[in-house]
Amino acid sequence: MKGFLLSFWSEFYKSRKTLGFWSAIILPLFLNLLAVAVFYTKSDKFMMYQPMVLWIQFSMMSLGIMGTLLLPMFVIFIAYSVNSVEHKADTWKTLFSLPLSRWSVYGAKFFYAVFLIFLSLFLFGVFTIAFGNLLGIVKPELKFGAYHMEVQIMQVYFKLFLSSLGILAIQFLLSLLWADFLKPMGIGFIATITGVIAASKNWEYAYAFPYAHPMAAITSMIKQNKGPVRDLEIDIFTKDVFVSLGVAVVVFIAGYFIVRRKSVK
Amino acid sequence: MVIRTDNLSFSFANQQVVKSLSLQVPAGSIYGFLGPNGAGKTTTIKMLLNLLKIQDGSIHIFDKELQGNRIEILSQIGSLIEQPAIYAHLTGKENLINRAMLLQVNTNRVDEMLKLVRLTNASDKKAGQYSLGMKQRLGIALALLGDPKLLILDEPTNGLDPNGIIEIRELMISLVKEQGKTVFISSHLLGEIERMATHVGIINNGSLLFQGNVKDLENISQPQVHIEADNTVDAANLLKRHNFIVNDINNEHLFVPFTSKQQIGEINTLLVQNGITVYGINKQHKDLEKLFLNITKSN
């Protein structure tokens, strides 16, 4: 366990000056600032909305983009970036000749990638809530203060996080085995496009395909209650989320055995 | 023995690159692991560090079986394999701090190591901007950071200038003499190993051709009498007429196999009495370079 924590800390230390780390912070900040700019300049268009609808409109600006193409691509990029640090510096051999178990090195790297995705999506939720309330203060005609859906926003991002883990496990393994960017990126890109098409056409087996999960997570997030809608209830644990978690666990464990057997070049 | 391998073998696909290697590296030695490029040196080193799975044979380090005691053994080894593995986006100092964290070594040692390899002034520069020699020195600092009992260095003087090579050599010698460490160092350059090694292993095409201490190696090479004279051809003919074996003649010098000190005196007298001016006459060991070529050629 100590080896794992040391390796995890080292992952942070190594990546803290790389684009991989900073993109997890800059991406949510940038997209939310963009949403703020739209609402601020077009406030007259949005002022007639009910507070609940206003929040949904505002949060969907980031959620919509993330849920379709951006989250899978971001996951592919993060999976690449934590592994490329070692490929580029040719440090796998050093890493595996340190007095640390192979599990610590592999596990810490994987969970660091998980942490970066979590951090980014957590910040998406935090920035959405913070900037929404800020807009309500700066432009009182936008009635952000009259409705609260902090919990639901965080729940949606948590659901997105869980739905991205299947892709992450697959891409992580691809990026670990291949030093170049194009192979994992190309495979990931094609799979993502397939996933988007599968999910948007409501293909009945889309839930079984990890790259369709982020989009499926968005479409399946609202609990289908009978009767009139008063409050939004978020359904986190849908079928696609379970599949995503299952894929993540299986691929992660399989990856460990591949790494253990693998000779380091 | 600090390192002991028994009949170690390794193949990539159908090509056997290491053949029944039985290394014996005694404690407190500088073991020069010599061989031309592609002889199997790096493959052997990677097996010693458990980076390549052993296919045949066994490895014992500090008298413990490697596979079953991997972490315990690795915690006492510092290594540098091929090109130094350095994070280019971090400074030299950050590279060392990162490693110090992983090894749980006090960060004070980082500054000591920087001073030892003379990188203190460049410590805040990105390692990617270092020259090859600086990278190599940083790699050596990384290997020494955990104060290991055994240092395994694969071609550590690659890319270093003559001063750098001398510094590394002196550092190795002082580590062994003053701190009782053991150094296993591979090279394809004999001159370099000759000057610091106490023990030598010579490998070619995956097989060990010679193993022993440096004296043994010198003894198996026959010493020669080296003669410099004004007319080497006449000198050679004269010596041949007096039943001396002459080999390797050119305009500058000639060699006669050494038998005794008296023999040198006799040769000198003979040459001078027959009007040949002798510029120099002395006993010489065949240098490792020639010896090495002989051994590798004959196999």
From TrEMBL, chain A:
The chain crosses the membrane at residues 20-40, 52-80, 110-135, 156-179, 241-259. Pfam families: ABC2_membrane_4 (PF12730). CDD domains: ABC-2_lan_permease-like. It comes from the Bacteria. Keywords: Membrane, Transmembrane, Transmembrane helix. PANTHER family: INTEGRAL MEMBRANE PROTEIN-RELATED (PTHR37305), MEMBRANE PROTEIN (PTHR37305:SF1). This is ABC transporter permease. It comes from Mucilaginibacter glaciei.
UniProtKB/TrEMBL annotation, chain B:
The keyword Cell wall biogenesis/degradation does not apply. The keyword Transport applies. This is ABC transporter ATP-binding protein. Belongs to the ABC transporter superfamily. Keywords: ATP-binding, Nucleotide-binding, Transport. It comes from Mucilaginibacter glaciei. SMART domains: AAA (SM00382). Residues 3-230 form the ABC transporter domain. It holds the Pfam family ABC_tran. GO terms for molecular function: ATP binding; ATP hydrolysis activity.
